[in-house]
Amino acid sequence: MAALEKLTGELNSAIDNALSIVSYTELADGAGWRIAFSDGSSLDLTNGLDGADGKDGTNGKDGKDGTNGKDGTNGRDGTNGDSLIEKITPSEDGLSIVITLTSGPTYTFAQAPAASGTAGVGGSLTWAFYPTGTLTFSGTGAMIDYGSPGDQPWIGHADEIKKVVILSGVTSIENSAFKNCTNLESVTIPEDVTNIDVNAFEGCTSLKSITIPESVTSIGQSAFAYCEDLKSITIEEGVGSIGEGAFVGCTSLANVTILATTPPLPTLGDDNFTANNNDTLYVPEGCVDKYEAADWDSVFSNIKAITTTP
Q1: pTM here?
Q2: What is the mean pLDDT of each run of 10 residues along the chain (310 residues)?
Q3: Is 114 in contact with 133 (CB distance < 8 Å)?
């Protein structure tokens, strides 16, 4: 109990001082975790308490006349203590760490970004990369068009990026912004984004699904090309054009949902969507004929109304 009180006291102190977490690493042999705080201090969260020391053996009784007394018995070994830490996990948004104790309160600490800077025209946007692999964008306006992959200031973390969160106010995703971020698994695009530029997510081979909000009017050339693990695409009403090769090389693609009642104008054919025989395009009810007339059935063998989506 004393060890638990000591631990909760240290965590409460960190909360009171508004400390954020810079990193957390597992100790050797799974003994616990070491948390580094933004003030330079660190705290080891061990998984168990040391067992209590065994009691000393009792003294032997005096023997009867002519016999020696018996030796005292050895004390028992101390038992292992219970684990103090149940788990340490990133929060759902990836921007904080949740420490769950086996007994007592749950603690949530904000993460300190490992790197950050400006990303918008005139410094209007800010990017921040967090140790758990989340890259965020906040502010108002368009991203800077860096022109080619490798020029983006966050590209040094490309292999570490697992989640991209673009907050409300950002209006564009520019040329090659996340190209070849091969461990990127999820993307949040707000309603304010109107354009996804060329090659924006090309080669993001771990991305599994994407939803394009209604505010987006155009998807650029090769925007999601060679996202080999991409299985599901939802394009909300608003997209009017889909660039050449936007989804080429998406070899795991199983179904696409387009909510526009007027079919977008794509560059159709093998150089746009990599569609397999089992791929299905879901469209609004009553619009199947429109999409077939717009030649979407040259890419998708099945076009069905959204009401039939599994």
Answers
A1: 0.73
A2: 75 84 77 81 68 50 60 52 71 77 82 88 86 90 84 91 94 94 96 95 96 95 94 92 89 89 70 64 94 86 76
A3: no
CATH class of 115-308: alpha beta
* Residues 150-196: tens digit of each pLDDT: 888 999 999 999 999 999 999 999 999 999 999 999 999 999 999 99
Look at phi and psi of residue 134 and say left if phi exceeds 0, alpha if psi is from -120 to 50, else beta.
Answer: beta
Instruction: Report the 3 state secondary structure along the chain.
Output: CHHHHHHHHHHHHHHHCCCCEEEEEECHHHCEEEEEECCCCEEEEECECCCCCCCCCCCCCCCCCCCCCCCCCCCCCCCCCCECEEEEEECCCCCEEEEEECCCCEEEEEECCCEEEECEHHHCEEEEECCCCEEEEEECECECCCCCCCCCCCHHHCCCCCEEEECCCECEECCCCCCCCCCCCEEECCCCCCEECCCCCCCCCCCCEEEECCCCCEECCCCCCCCCCCCEEEECCCCCEECCCCECCCCCCCEEEECCCCCCEECCCCCCECCCCCCEEEECCCCHHHHHHCCHHHCCCEEEEHHHCC
Q: Report residue 146 as tokens.
A: 């860096």
Parse the chain into domains and list their residue ranges. 2-110, 115-308
